[in-house]
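Input structure tokens:
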């Protein structure tokens, strides 16, 4: 069972030789909130609060969020699959590159299809299968980026950039933010030599997400805005360009909200929602799985999330009411929506509504549900209620909150 957030805050506070009052002063979080967390009266906190506590404790945000989806941080050696991913991202020095296992059959269209399928595995939370496939995909992409005519190598570099970007996302889910940055830096180098004018901007969005996980909110905001301005000036003429620009705008808004500026974040999200309406009327990209996730559904999901994270549950429920998700909304995004709706119901005292949302999540995306520490935090809070709502025990058992 993962460590309770309050126990984690208390342990880290004592390691830093801080009293509750001292942590409150350093983080600008009230002593009352800290006390309730440490006394297990609350199992969760808004993301702005978590960012502030992480800053006050001098740790990364991931330290408070708990084990990300993937492998638990037990201190044991990394599993062989993750070592293979690490080796593909950062090949050993002074060693010849591995020969592709199917050099005679390897083509760029085949590789692009495999990369798109790998991104689908990522959004489906099939991380074990993805770790098995990704090393060969990266090695094949690295090979195609080094052979053929100039235009063929440029196309190979684009494939390599997308494969390494996926490696960066997977590394974040494994709790390896430094490995993620190594992957994304290499992806950015590939993008510079590629035939895809939007690739650098898409990778910038991934780097901004990494910075958010490391509690580097200013760095995340500045990078997202810089990349968004570049796309808007040079490439926002078709659906792909607008999707990439919109994704960057959402990223910047998220950083503003986590930093406490909800009004500015909400204004940016409303602008993004209008852009998503324009995208819906444009011809779809050839393979949208290789372009940033951005649609009317994704923007509304993110608006719900920011409202919940900023302590505005009523607003979140209003935004979520009557939503119709587009058919291409990935399971990962559906998971975030249902979790946030559950959290909002819990925050307004509607325990039955929270359980219904969690039951829906268990039906729609059980794999993602198992991976999210927020699901555990919500269930823990509901479990402490004087009267537990019907259906809660089944979910608590499913998540391992109770035996």
């Amino acid at each position: 069972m993962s460590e309770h957030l309050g126990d984690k805050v208390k342990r880290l506070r004592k390691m830093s030789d801080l009293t509750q009052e001292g942590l409150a002063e350093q983080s600008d979080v009230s002593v009352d909130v800290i006390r309730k967390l440490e006394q297990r009266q609350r199992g969760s906190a808004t993301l702005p609060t978590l960012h502030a506590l992480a800053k006050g404790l001098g740790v990364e945000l991931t330290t408070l969020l708990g084990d990300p989806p993937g492998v638990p941080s037990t201190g044991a050696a990394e599993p062989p699959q993750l070592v293979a991913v690490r080796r593909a991202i950062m090949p050993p020095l002074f060693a010849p590159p591995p020969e592709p296992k199917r050099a005679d059959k390897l083509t760029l269209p085949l590789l692009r299809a495999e990369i798109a399928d790998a991104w689908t595995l990522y959004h489906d939370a099939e991380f074990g299968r993805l770790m098995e496939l990704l090393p060969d995909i990266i090695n094949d992409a690295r090979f195609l980026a080094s052979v053929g005519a100039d235009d063929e190598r440029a196309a190979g570099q684009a494939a390599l950039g997308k494969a390494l970007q996926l490696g960066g996302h997977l590394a974040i889910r494994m709790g390896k933010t430094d490995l993620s940055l190594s992957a994304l830096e290499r992806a950015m180098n590939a993008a510079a030599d590629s035939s895809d004018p939007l690739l650098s901007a898409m990778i910038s969005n991934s780097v901004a997400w990494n910075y958010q996980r490391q509690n580097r909110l200013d760095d995340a905001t500045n990078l997202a805005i810089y990349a968004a301005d570049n796309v808007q000036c040079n490439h926002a003429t078709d659906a792909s360009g607008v999707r990439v620009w919109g994704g960057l705008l959402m990223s910047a808004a998220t950083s503003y909200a986590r930093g406490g500026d909800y009004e500015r974040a909400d204004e940016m999200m409303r602008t993004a929602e209008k852009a998503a309406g324009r995208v819906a009327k444009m011809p779809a990209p050839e393979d949208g799985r290789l372009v940033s996730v951005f649609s009317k559904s994704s923007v509304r999901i993110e608006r719900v999330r920011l409202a919940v994270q900023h302590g505005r549950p009523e607003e979140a429920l209003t935004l979520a009411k009557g939503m119709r998700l587009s058919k291409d909304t990935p399971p990962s995004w559906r998971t975030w929506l249902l979790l946030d709706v559950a959290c909002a119901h819990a925050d307004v005292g509607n325990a039955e509504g929270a359980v219904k949302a969690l039951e829906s999540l268990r039906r729609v995306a059980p794999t993602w549900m198992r991976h999210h520490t927020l699901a555990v935090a919500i269930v823990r809070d509901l479990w402490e209620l004087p009267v537990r709502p019907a259906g809660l025990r089944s979910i608590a058992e499913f998540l391992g909150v109770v035996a």
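The two ends are 10 Å apart (CA to CA). DSSP finds 21 helices and no strands in the chain.
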